[in-house]
Amino acid sequence: MSFAPWCPDSLIAQCLVAKGQVSEQTVVAIAVTAIYASPTCLLLFIRATMSWMMLRRTTLPPRSIVSALVGPNAIWGSANYHARIRFQYGSPSWLLRVPRVTSFAVGLPIPLADYLIASEYATLKFLETTTVPAPRAFSYGTCSDGTDHGVGVAFLLMEELPGRPWTGEGVSSTVATDDEKAKIWSELAEILTELERHPFSKAGSLCFQSSGIEVSAVASDRFGVLTPTGPFHNSAAYYTAFAEQYLELIADGQVYTEFPVDAYLVYRFLKDNVSQLVEQGGEAKYPEKFFLKHVDDKGDHLLVDDDLHITGIIGWQMARVVPPREAFGPSLVTADMNALWTGKFSLSNDDVALTDALRQKGLSWITSRAVDEKARRFFWGLDLETEWSNALPLAVAILEAFGIRQDWAQWSKMALKEYESDERLRALLSIVIPEIGNGDPAMPTPE
After folding, report:
1. Source organism's superkingdom (predicted)?
2. Which of 8, 116, 197, 300 is the most exposed place for a label (fewest CB within 10 A)?
3. Residue 349: what pLDDT?
């Protein structure tokens, strides 16, 4: 069998499979071989995959036909391929999500891609039991357990919701006014209040287990660099694990390679100060409660209609179940991103506005607490900055968030002395300053 995968409007593969002239496995194999070659090849992949699933009579609507309106415009993101699929003209559409394993900014290992897909599917199925406006999930497949049906890549089939991503604009397509944003914050507060009604006993990410949807290992972080770990029965262990994984990556030379000593000091400081994140006063109530959190909530995860009503929340790929401070405190959606990137430590006007809306909705965790930026700064960390000049303001903001009012040179000198027995730190210093590895007890301040 042969056909031209470069032809964007070709339905040859679909027709051949439907008529039984070739095996669907052969067609899908050819499509997968071509998937990363060009966007048009992705269309063929979608058609072949959907034909395969129709042949297997999986979750597709009865008597549905994949229409010619699969494309031609695929939807692309930094971490995933997306393609729109319609059944008959004018019908509601689905989206097929395929992780961009080889194209992701920091590299996405196949086992992690599989886990993210499985976790997102479980998360969306859980959200179907709530009033949160999230996409319905229809099916998924992963390579590691063979549920990819021989496709060769992980995938997720889900509903496409109406609306457009909200990027801060108002009804008139200019920057949203305070009144317009107040409408957004009020509806978002209602959604967060709904999530508070569904607590969990552990921190981690949702996955299907033998008994149903359970909290399992954390599905990485929004930067996609962490290995799933957990679940965690208390918030101190949860926060500590994040800081420790970054310490391991820094020590192994995988991140912050241009300024490893400075980066190590920052994350060692965060690890040593997780008690400040465990409820107010450093004491948590036991047993602790944890809540589902959308991790990559920059604002464009919200879909809105022309009147700025929230029609849906998308992009749950790295969602996790977290302590209430992280779930309901200041997050990316209300952050002043310029201030966050440049290391200005403060709550934004939008932070305050959403907090007020949450209080008005009666969210119990926030009604009697003063909020701060600690959790947001903890997880933003040093971002994935590659130059110390850009990471330094973030480091200083982290110190300030956790109560340190010293300039970096003064603080880092003290920190080097405090952590002088840390073997991983000494190993890093022995690379940056070789005499440390030769037994020199001096621990000079990093540049």
Report:
1. Eukaryota
2. 197
3. 95
Tokens for 183, please give them. 């409408």
Domains of the chain, earliest start first: 12-160 (3.30.200.20), 178-405 (3.90.1200)
Per-residue model confidence as pLDDT tens digits over 288-330:
999 999 998 988 999 999 999 999 999 999 999 999 999 999 9
Rounded to 5°, angle at Cα 366 from 360 and 371: 115
How far apart (Å, rounded) are the C-alpha atoms in residues 213 and 9? 40
Judged on CB neighbours under 10 Å (0-12, 13-18, 19+), 103 is middle
Least confident interval from 273-287, 393-407, 426-440: 426-440
Asked if 201 and 286 touch (Cβ cutoff 8 Å), the reply is: no
Q: Please compute the mean of the pLDDT values over residues 215-232 and round it to a whole number.
A: 83
Beta pairing partners, 81: 76, 98
Residue with tokens 């998308």: 314
Which pLDDT tens digit goes with each residue over 370-407?
789 999 999 999 998 999 999 999 999 999 999 999 99
pTM of the predicted structure, to 2 decimals:
0.81
Give the angle 100-331-347 at the CA atoms, nearest 5°.
140
Q: Which pLDDT tens digit goes with each residue over 115-129? A: 999 999 999 999 999
- The string of DSSP letters for 128-162 reads TTSS---PPEEEEE-TTTTTTTT-SS-EEEEEPPS
Q: How far is CA 404 from CA 102, 137, 260, 368, 395, in A?
A: 41, 45, 21, 26, 11
- The amino acid sitting at 76 is W
User: Could you tell me where the beta strands, DSSP code E, fall in 205-296?
Assistant: 205-209, 212-216, 291-293
Burial, 19: exposed, middle or buried (Cβ in 10 Å; 0-12, 13-18, 19+)?
A: exposed
